[in-house]
Amino acid sequence: MRRRISLPLKLFLIVFAFVLSCIILISQLSYRYVQKEIRTNDIYYTNQILDKVDQYLTVNFSSFQTILFSVETSVKANIDNTEVIKKQLRELYELNSNYVSNIYLIKSDLSILGGSTTTRIFDEPLSDREPLFDAADKNRRTTFVSDPYKSKYSGWTVTMVRYLNGSPFPMAIAVDLDLNAIEETLFKINKKEQMNLALITSSGKIIAGFSENRGPLSIQDHTFSIGETSAEQILNTSGTSLQLHTKEGLPVSILKKPTEKFNWSIISINDESRLEAALSRLEKYYIVLLVAGLLLSLFISFFIAKYIRNPLYALKTKMKRVEQGDLTTTVTIKRNDEFGDLSRAFDRMLQQIVELIRRGELHNELERKLEIQVLQSQINPHFLYNTLGAISNVIHLGQIEKVDVVIGSLISSLEYGITDASEKVSLRQELQNVSDYIAIQNIRYNRHFHLIEHIEDGLMDFPVFRMLLQPIVENSIFHGYNGGEIEGSITIHAYRKGDIVMIEVIDQGEGIPADKIKHILTAEPSDLEVKRKRIGLHNIHGRIRLHYGEQFGLQIISIPKEKTCVRAVFPVDLFKGGVCG
């Protein structure tokens, strides 16, 4: 047989799985969100660094432009005094030696007047100055910035050159930038921020950077590539960011920004080592969080299962005791929640069951007594005695024709009365019994009690208690007509009203005082009724209520000296009718 899993254990497993799943889901979503935020912030932070580098280059560009204009002003003022020009070039160079490799004038024969120590000594013409001089000559109103190249005296450099307008001799002013100083600045940023920055020309040449931290790069002849993508292709790609892969398949993030003053681009290449380090620290935190979540899930699941298990077992114990027949069991659950309500409702239900059993026993006992009383009254010796006396009287009076009527009515009444009192009869049968009873009473009292029947169509077959109407009619003759001293009519009216059927017995006799009506249906039978074995109205009222409910029974309406109506109310479906006439 398959073993059944208890509800608390199921609840424990469900809650544990639910809480742990929620924690894992929230952790994973949080991790992915934080990972995304780290990437976003990393991109934002890198762009901030690129902006700072661009600002640094813009400041340097302004400084270089200032040097060029200073040289231009000085040369124009001392065009005929070469020594003064040399001296001023030397002073400008020494003042800006942290940023520039040389400051000099290029003559048309490609010889120079230099500011650095080397160029002051060696000023012979060099062919690599020709492109610089030609560019300045073609763009006399602007400053020309060369591509990086290898200078004999300045090493790896970039030259800013400007034509000297207003000079009697064709000349150009040149400043060789100290790329080592720029590169050192980039290296400091790379080291501090764990980045990989470089300045790149539009053709993909490396001006400065990368050399100390190549990472995923392949650098050859002052240019670079990532995987199969060259530097020029990277620069020509639209957008400021792109994702590439190295030859080994590792992902690489690239951000690029064009400089404001130079025709260069600032490149940041991140192989995600910095991001992976941050995520590695984050993963350790989430592992701790998951372990804590596991322990928390166990605690919460155990607590909830225990919170449900204790009252559940208490209720189960109580139900087992009830199942064994102990209806007085009390297992109190003192809680202000659904289990407390359920326990209290269960106790109330047990009390109601006990009360129903008690009431059922009383009901059966009362019903038994009522039925016995009906059986005892069905053969009423006093009634039989009076009827036989009436037969004797009519014989002495010579009214022989009435003897058969009395005897026939008596036989019918006796046959009707000795049948099982609990058996239901039709209204037609009950009316016939009343007719026989009144026929006997007419002869007995030598009066005429006229029986009038107003029965709504369809109600002749309505089921009623045996001996329902005769006691009410007897009550009308005995009380309404003073025991036969006066005569009058007795009307029986049956009709439907909504979902009930009303059967009324109406007499025109003495009536009943209002202060006595309310006691008739609740009072115990009087000594006279007990002696006479008469069925009281309270007996009929009780039988109807026992069988159909307390909303049914007898109603008494009486106007003293005019009329009394005793109404029996029964439940029925699909009947509607009138009122007391």
TrEMBL record:
Keywords: ATP-binding, Cell membrane, Kinase, Membrane, Nucleotide-binding, Phosphoprotein, Transferase, Transmembrane, Transmembrane helix, Two-component regulatory system. Residues 306-358 form the HAMP domain. Pfam families: HAMP (PF00672), HATPase_c (PF02518), His_kinase (PF06580). The chain crosses the membrane at residues 12-31, 285-308. InterPro entries: Bact_2-comp_sensor_kinase, HAMP_dom, HATPase_C_sf, HATPase_dom, Sig_transdc_His_kin_internal. PROSITE patterns: HAMP, PROKAR_LIPOPROTEIN. This is Histidine kinase. Its main location: membrane. PANTHER family: SENSOR HISTIDINE KINASE YPDA, SENSOR PROTEIN KINASE HPTS. It is a multi-pass membrane protein. GO terms for molecular function: kinase activity. It comes from Paenibacillus violae. It is found in: Cell membrane. Gene3D superfamilies: 6.10.340.10, Histidine kinase-like ATPase, C-terminal domain, PAS domain.
